[in-house]
Automatic annotation (TrEMBL):
Gene3D superfamilies hit by this protein: Lipopolysaccharide (LPS) transport protein A like domain
Pfam families membership: LptD (PF04453)
Transmembrane segments: none
Classification of source organism: Bacteria, Pseudomonadati, Pseudomonadota, Alphaproteobacteria, Hyphomicrobiales
Family: Belongs to the LptD family.
Chief location of this protein within or outside the cell: membrane
Localisation per UniProt entry: Cell outer membrane
Record-annotated LptD C-terminal domain positions: 332-752
Quaternary organization: Component of the lipopolysaccharide transport and assembly complex.
Protein name (record): LPS-assembly protein LptD
Function of the molecule: Involved in the assembly of lipopolysaccharide (LPS) at the surface of the outer membrane.
Entries under InterPro entries matching the protein: LipoPS_assembly_LptD (IPR020889), LptD (IPR050218), LptD_C (IPR007543)
Amino acid sequence: MTAVHRGPVSRLTRRTLVRANGCGLSIRRFLLAVAAVASLGGVMDVAAVTPASAQSFTYNPLPPRAKPPKAVNDNQMLVQATEVDYDYNNSRVSAVGNVQLFYNGTSVEADKVIYDQKTKRLHAEGNIRMTDADGKITYAEILDLSDDYRDGFVDSLRVDTADQTRMAASRSDRSSGNYTVFENGVYTACAPCKDDPKKPPLWQVKGARIIHDQQEKMLYFETAQLEFFGVPIAYMPYFSTPDPTVKRKTGFLMPGFTSNTPFGYGVEVPFYWAIAPDMDATFNPRITSRQGVLFQAEFRQRLMDGAYQIRVYGIDQLDRSALAGQPGDKQFRGAVDTKGQFALNDKWVWGWDGVLMSDYYFFSDYRLSQYRDPLGSFLYLPTDALSQLYLTGVGNRSFFDARTMYWLSYSGNQNQVPVVYPVIDYSNVLNYPVFGGEFSYKTNFVNLSRDTAVFDPITTLANTNSLCTTVSADPLARTPSQCLLRGFPGTYTRLTAEAQWRKSFTDPFGEIWTPFAILRADAINSSVSNQPGVSNYLPVGDTQALRLMPTVGLEYRYPFINVQPWGSTTIEPIAQIIIRPNETYAGKLPNEDAQSMVFDASNLFSVDKFSGYDRVEGGGRANVGVQSTTQFDRGGAIKTLFGQSYQLFGMNSFAVQDSINTGVDSGLQRPRSDYVASAAYSPNSTYTFSVRSRMDEQTWNVQRFEAEGRANFNRWSVSMLYGNYAAQPELGYLTRREGILTSGSIKLAANWVVTGSARWDLEANKINQYVLGAGYVDDCFVLGLNYVTAYSYSAGSTPPVLNHAIMFQIGLRTLANTATTSSSGGGLQ
């Protein structure tokens, strides 16, 4: 480097601050050249760690510098240095000693910066650190650029970007204003080790040359090798990937592998097409060893107010014998799947889900990800595919939802699945008092139809539907000990409107009184087809009904509080009196949405204990109980509840058999209900224990019992649920059910986790479901291995099928993410 001529040079020392305005031609060119440094930051779309040698990554932070002044964004550049020299004879401007440059949000720090007007080159050296407006930091020892920013080189380069990707190289050259070539480059998306910065990162890619095409925003690796912890595991003569700034890029994605008995082994090589900023497409053909090529394609588009997507599938099967006797025994199989959702404004959205398949086992046979089983998203089991169109609105105190629904049945009995068109819900709570209390109302409208009746044999004798479809001489003769009518054939329409008022006040003695009043009306029209056996359960033909249920009631609570040095205990007796008429048309109308009935402590004080609108509780009833809460000063709490329900007068709705015996064997069918109890204990944030139980009112025999325990520590967690349920022959459960469900996870190291769960059927004395998994997760790498075993069930008398699935997943942040799945089913040979 030529020495600075000391003759006619004017020198500014003592950390002088120089502004661009009025500094003369040399300073102006100097400032323009310094802007080239900022330009280099704009093209370095990858990041690096210490570049001392490109053999592996280390991290050696620079010593702290003085805090730079606030960035200037008025096209002025600030230059701060120990001294700034002007060499007019050699047309050079030099800034020496802790040089700091600030221009339009970009700062450059170096030991020395020289601009040569004759060669039109900007040269910086010594501890160079450049930070652009986006937070990207470039480190180097030597930087040389032409003043048009097109050509230049950087020695000992290291770049850190805001997205935490890093690149190092022994030398970097930039040409044509577009290409940057990193010699002996190393690339990673992993942060350096805090304890040992010289330790190699978890993974890194080394290349003899790494070429960055700024225009295409691509990284090209030549003679590359992938290393884990500094150990090479894969060699690639050439590969390319979008640079880290790219979120969407046309090209091939990482391949995937899967296997299943019907199609053998499958390899997928997805191709992604970024059509426009608002739309894209993915083509994902799967080449199978047994059935040929399964075509898969997905199109997505995002609009101003929402987004939608369409998936299509199709295959011309080569080996139909693999599915002989199965629903998929056909030449062509395929499906169309679409989803969309759009916002009308900040409170209203509408959308759809749509599925159309050639046969109901298509997604299951080919293990398509959209319909994986929820047991861990790895085991593909048959499931219902829902098509729907919906409109939803949410206000501050109101809610509206309307939708039509159509299910594709996994069982193949499509004519037994109802079509809902539509179901509409609306609820609102007024934000002002009415007679001093809270007033709310809600409505529900449903219209559905089903072609064929759905019978469920509930005894070992009724192993076919022949007994269920036998027509009785008595048109209302029930056969509850033999069959249930799960779904009626015909059309059903119901409109429900309900208004409720309640108010709470506390008297001078601390007693809490809550009177309430409810008025509900149901307008029902049902048309039940006269199919064999249906008349044993429901009146066939057309039925119109108007069902009114006025209700008044009073709830009483009297809390007693005892404060001790160790904590406080609150004991609260609760009594509830409900007065209303009998349920009209009880058991004589279809029941589609109130089939589930579980009586426990959670709904002891519910005014109407039915789960849906098709049944409504009638008759006078009293619900009584006592609950206590103990809060310890050092943390922890115990909460208990014990109570019982009484039928005071009128007809007991839970003792009336309907088409599916809802309420029978629930514990509420007698004038004095079973006892219900619950207890929960949390000594601290680590442990949680709870029990729930229902005991027979006369014998105190346990009818339903659940005990659950959870523990969460720093490195491991475990949970266990024990369930014991008495036989309910009226509902089809002929024997007692007992089992244990366990799950747990252990953090073996900072990023290693092992998980597992199992379900043990104590009655059959076997484990019928378990999941085992292990994984590694950090900010730059994902590794997972999962094994799942569970039974899937088909319609009719087909025995359950034991399914196994193994999934292996690996992901390198910014580079690749791929998965391999292997599964088998005992019934799919």
